[in-house]
Amino acid sequence: MTPDGRRVSFQRVEDFSPPRWPGREHPRQIHLDVMVTDLDESEPLVLRLGCDVARGLAKPIGFRVYADPAGHPFCLVTN
């Protein structure tokens, strides 16, 4: 929790079926944007943590799409 009271909570889901992005047969449950100062510096970190680059997208300007190890999509975003 931050001093101003913001927090993010997670819970385990039994019989979880991970989302596939892009795709509709396993829809995503959340999409998280993470603000970073430099995409090229931040990408190796998320890859080392077990994330994958989302397929089907070139490297767009200002953001990149990844999937966490469970398959949830998220973006690294710059200002």
TrEMBL record:
Domain named Glyoxalase-like: residues: 3-77
Annotated region described as Disordered, given as residue ranges: 1-24
Domain of life of the native organism: Bacteria
InterPro entries linked to this entry: Glyas_Bleomycin-R_OHBP_Dase, Glyoxalase_6
Record-linked PANTHER family: CONSERVED PROTEIN, HYPOTHETICAL FUSION PROTEIN
Name recorded for this polypeptide: Glyoxalase-like domain-containing protein
Originating species: Lentzea atacamensis
